[in-house]
Specification:
single chain
Length: 417
């Protein structure tokens, strides 16, 4: 339980921003609350910060409140000593295990997403072509006689419509429009008649013309919206009927908006699901490409390591030669007299019989390196300083009973003449 202390016992400070009057509620500045909220967020994200020396007072306070404090982090392993032998090049490091793909969480599963309720609204899925109607031109000059004729035709149309003769009513409304093409009311009347005749395509045209003639015509939006509803164009119908009711409220239009609102909400929910599905597909494809790229990089790395290993082995063989490289001839002073040498070959009986120039050449690093590299040896043969020595060495090798000097090739195979 929390320790209870009376305000009188607390160390109140007069100018402390957090000091509270014993009878008043806590009062904090917005900046202080923001800083506190940021601090709490940091502790939530990384509770290990509570083990830092700077926050020891806060940790002790939490422990006094019987709060559960996470264990401190384990100490980091000590670094590898520098004297440990390095891993050889041919030691293969096992590849890091591929991260397992996390299954979709339940919140992301489409089957768990509750779609808004759907409603059944009858509509014409494949409307048939409709005959063209006269479309009035608002620029036509209208006389008084034309207006009188339009009024008479409208009255006749309303009578025919009331009697159920919609075809005759349509003809009368059209005749009225011919006499008064500037009347949006007549356009609206004919559009309503077309809706009753189940001719939504023609009704859409009358509604659009009425809106062009008068952008604030509620009947124009009502006719076009109702016609689009009959065609199954739910979002467009909802937008038109909402505009119609905004200009002139109608209970019948409001009922249609309730039905269309459910349709539109469901459409938007399905579209949102589709966008999330496409997003997951894009992320999945990106992960696949990343995995493939890492696999190709790993394959190339292994191939390169194998190639470097083969090159290293080839250089090692070349540097050591066939029988282990050019023997050190500096200690040949103690060799017995090889009297079987052919005539004309140098006397190898001890150090005293060795040609001084040849003996000096055998202690020359450049000369000895050339003996182990055919390319360098051929270059050395062109040098007037070393060419005679190479000839003597070839003659000496020939006089050693076929023993020769091996450096991955026989020196008598080279033309030292």
């Amino acid at each position: 339980e929390m320790d209870t202390e009376t305000p009188e016992n607390l160390p109140w400070r007069e100018n402390d921003a957090f000091a509270l009057h014993p009878m008043s509620a806590p009062s904090f500045k917005p900046a202080q609350l923001a800083a506190l909220e940021q601090f709490i967020r940091i502790v939530k994200d990384n509770p290990q910060v509570l083990h830092t020396p700077q926050l020891r007072f806060f940790k002790e306070y939490l422990e006094s409140m019987n709060a559960t404090i996470p264990s401190p982090p384990a100490p980091e392993p000590e670094p590898t000593p520098a004297h440990e032998p390095e891993v050889e090049m041919d030691t293969e490091t096992p590849p890091a295990p591929e991260p397992k793909e996390e299954p979709e969480s339940e919140s992301e599963s489409e089957s768990d997403v509750a779609l808004p309720e759907d409603v059944e609204i009858a509509f014409v899925e494949n409307p048939a072509e409709e005959p063209e109607l006269f479309m009035p031109d608002s620029e036509t000059e209208v006389t008084e006689d034309m207006i009188d004729a339009a009024i008479a035709a409208k009255a006749e149309a309303l009578e025919k419509q009331a009697a159920g003769d919609l075809g005759a009513a349509l003809e009368c409304f059209t005749r009225a429009l011919m006499n008064n093409p500037k009347s949006t009311i007549l356009l609206g009347n004919r559009g309503l008649c077309l809706l009753k005749m189940n001719r939504p395509l023609s009704a859409v045209k009358d509604g659009e013309l009425a809106i062009r003639m008068n952008p604030d015509s509620p009947k124009g939006y009502k006719i076009r919206g109702t016609a689009r509803m009959m065609l199954g164009q739910w979002e467009d119908a909802h937008r038109d009927l909402a505009q119609s009711n905004q200009l002139d409220f109608d209970e019948d239009v409001q009922e249609k908006l309730k039905l269309l609102g459910k349709k539109v909400a469901r459409i938007h929910a399905i579209q949102a699901l589709e966008r999330r599905r496409e997003q997951r597909q894009r992320v999945k494809e990106q992960k696949r490409k990343l995995k493939e790229r890492k696999a190709n990089q790993e394959k190339y790395r292994r191939m390169r390591e194998e190639e470097m290993k083969r090159e290293q082995e080839a250089r090692a063989k070349q540097s050591h030669g066939m029988p282990g490289g050019m023997p050190d001839m500096s200690g040949m002073g103690g060799m017995p007299d090889m009297g079987g040498a052919s005539e004309g070959s140098p006397n190898l009986g001890g150090m005293g019989g060795m040609d001084p120039d040849l003996m000096a050449a055998l202690n020359d690093p450049t000369f000895m390196a050339a003996l182990q590299d055919p390319t360098k040896l051929r270059e050395l043969m062109k040098d007037p300083k070393y060419a005679p020595l190479l000839a003597k060495l070839q003659q000496m090798a020939g006089g050693m009973g076929g023993m020769g000097v091996w450096v991955g090739f026989e020196i008598h195979d080279l033309d030292c003449a």
